[in-house]
Amino acid sequence: MSRGDLSEAEWRVLRGLLPIDAASRGPGRPPEENRSIINGILWRLRCGTPWRDVPPKYGNWNTIYRRFRRWSEAGVWEAVSVTLAEMMADSGHYSIDSTTVRAHVSAAGGKGGLIDALLAARGAGSPVSFTVWQMPEDDRSPST
What residues does the Insertion element IS402-like domain cover (predicted)? Predict the structure, then answer.
């Protein structure tokens, strides 16, 4: 297992949230090695590289990409994030890290257009990303 790969406990939680029946996955090979596929997806998202650069130890880059795209279109990632957020809320021990990215001052006052109107309608303009993680058992006690 490489740095950043799913631990046994993480995989046990995630495994139950992935689609496994043939009707939901469509044609193709059976979903063997989903753990390796997930590790490949996480590696790619963590590094920000093109899909073709995913190391072969995670499987064929095209298989990893197609599975990621298919699960995205099927709403699997939304279901996973909601379930994990509920689990974190139920435990009562969680931490949220948020980052706001602002545009450069010279980006203001540029010529507007259709894309600006569409982005404004969606509320875009200040992307926010967040990370949630559960604190280890030994870090839960209040400090003195």
Answer: 6-80
